[in-house]
Amino acid sequence: MKKGIIFDLDGVIVDTAKYHYLAWKKLANQLGFEFTKNQNELFKGVSRKVCLEILLEIGKVSATKEQFDIWMIEKNLDYLKYIENMDASEILPDVPKILQFLKENKIPIALGSASKNARSILEKVGLLPYFDAIVDGNNVTKAKPDPEVFLLAAKQLGVSAHDCVVFEDAVAGVEAANAAKMISIGIGDRNVLSEAQFNFKDFTEISIQFIEVLIKN
After folding, report:
1. 163 catalytic per annotation
2. DSSP per-residue codes, 186-216
3. What is the DSSP string of 146-166?
4. In whole angstroms, how far apart are CA 202 and each of 41, 51, 177, 194?
5. pLDDT tens digits for 80-89?
6. pLDDT for 130-145, tens place per residue?
7. 49 and 28 in one domain?
8. CATH code for position 142
């Protein structure tokens, strides 16, 4: 049976979470309240719209639909300024090693991310050629923990859902992978990502032998 490997982007392949945080913090400050790194954890794996809803709830700020849409655009423009100069140095440790091994062994690779800027980020850091399919915030209508993003990725790869493996750093992403009946691998704090079937701090802990077992079984 053919296996498919699906990667989340932020916090798994590259660390763009810091840039999202800076953009959300700037907006919060403009609206008259503070936004902490701990609060930013609530935004992992969540769409921009839901993030703004959470932010406004934190600041007890109400908005018309027009204001809401303007703030979403403003936040994204600030984020785009931050990521404009991203390059290969932003790739998290040992990610290229795993991608190269998968490519050499002709294992289909997809991206499954809530980010609407996923393709441009992969291009900036030089990883776009590794991916056979990209499903991001431009393709989905339901945010994680809904499994839509991963099910679409599996479909684009031509691989059945139960033959897919998902690498995720967010609780919502792990829940989405489990809901899709895929193998879930948590990247980050194992206490936070306890629902994942496997846990690793980062890709430096993942051996090629482990990947071989994953794709053969």
Report:
1. no
2. EES-TTTTTTSSEEESSGGG--HHHHHHHHH
3. STHHHHHHHHHHT--GGGEEE
4. 17, 25, 18, 15
5. 999 999 999 9
6. 999 999 989 998 989 9
7. yes
8. 3.40.50.1000
